[in-house]
Design a protein that fits this description.
The longest helix is centred in the middle third of the chain and has 24 residues. The protein has three helices and four strands; from the N terminus they run αββααββ. By secondary structure, the protein is of the alpha+beta class. The chain has one domain: Translation Initiation Factor IF3 (2-Layer Sandwich), CATH 3.30.110.70. The protein is elongated and about 55 Å long. Helix content is 34%, strand content 38%. It comes from Streptomyces hokutonensis.
Length: 121
């Protein structure tokens, strides 16, 4: 069972369904494989740090930092999906992100959830 059957995405992750819920309507959990995660730490570019410092004085979105965070979250999620696939899962339930500062030099992003094998009911 892939996401195509479920009606979801395309591309390299299309065979692993990732949801924030604890179940998927129309499917049952046949096997719980366990926790999977994808982790990445990104340092901030000096130019974006200076720009962010200036922007914080006048207000507004920190676009450089936003772009970096989106890229970082995407990379963490790709790593989570790779780990789930490598362990034989076709789904990840209770998907979440955790974001923290890493020793004031960058941002740590962890994508995590429970890898499962789903079957259509």
């Amino acid at each position: 069972m892939g996401i195509e059957e479920y009606g979801g995405g395309q591309g390299p992750q299309a065979d692993v369904l990732v949801v924030t819920t604890n179940d998927v309507p129309g499917y049952r959990v046949e096997q719980v494989i366990g926790e999977v995660f994808g982790l990445t730490v990104r340092s901030r570019h000096l130019g974006s740090q200076i720009g962010a410092g200036l922007k914080s004085m006048v207000g507004g979105e920190l676009k450089g930092l936003t772009k970096t965070l989106v890229q970082t979250r995407n990379q963490a999620m790709e790593r989570l999906i790779e780990q789930a696939r490598a362990r034989g899962a076709n789904g990840v339930l209770a998907f979440r992100f955790d974001v923290t500062e890493a020793a004031d030099v960058g941002t740590e992003v962890c994508a995590y959830g429970t890898a499962v094998v789903l079957a259509r009911v």
